[in-house]
Amino acid sequence: MKWLAIGIGGQKWGVYLVSPKSKHLNVDGEARVGSCDYRSCRIFIARDLEESARDDALFHEFLHAILYVSGAERAYGKSAEVEEGIVGAAAPYLHSLLRDLGFRFPRGFFQ
């Protein structure tokens, strides 16, 4: 179910809440709570997550999308492992910074 349309780097992205068993959350045989499909400009988030976990997953996938549209992969050679390391390290701090600056998803945003 699509519940958010957002612009990232001039591209239109759709964010979808999906079953935790969705094929979109099975990446290379590994179950995930979120994934980012660069070709279709879609982000998938498990719909059964609690609010804080959903926010964390969404910020994580937003950062993947930002790295993709910015062309940052040129700096790390398109290595999925390196990208995941960058995103995994940076996303919690970005999310924390935005919260400290007063950012909150609007009430009812995820309905």
Structure, described:
Helix content is 41%, strand content 25%. A 4-stranded mixed beta sheet has the order 1-2-6-5, with helices on one face. The protein has a two-stranded antiparallel ribbon with strand order 3-4. A hairpin with a 2-residue loop joins strand 1 and strand 2. The model has no long low-confidence stretch (mean pLDDT 89). By secondary structure, it is of the alpha+beta class. The longest helix has 21 residues, at 80-100.
Total helical segments: 3
Mean pLDDT: 89
| Count of individual domains | 1
| Separation of the first and last Cα atoms | 11 Å
Instruction: Provide the CATH architecture.
Output: Orthogonal Bundle
pLDDT under 50 segments (min length 5)? none
**What is the total tally of β strands?**
6
* Helix-residue proportion: 40-55%
CATH topology: Arc Repressor Mutant, subunit A
Rg result: 14 Å
Strand order of the largest sheet: 1-2-6-5
Spatial shape: globular
Task: Describe the largest sheet.
Answer: 4 strands, mixed
Structural class: alpha+beta
Percentage of residues in DSSP E strands? 25-35%
Order of helices and strands, N to C? EEEEEEHHH
CATH structural class: Mainly Alpha
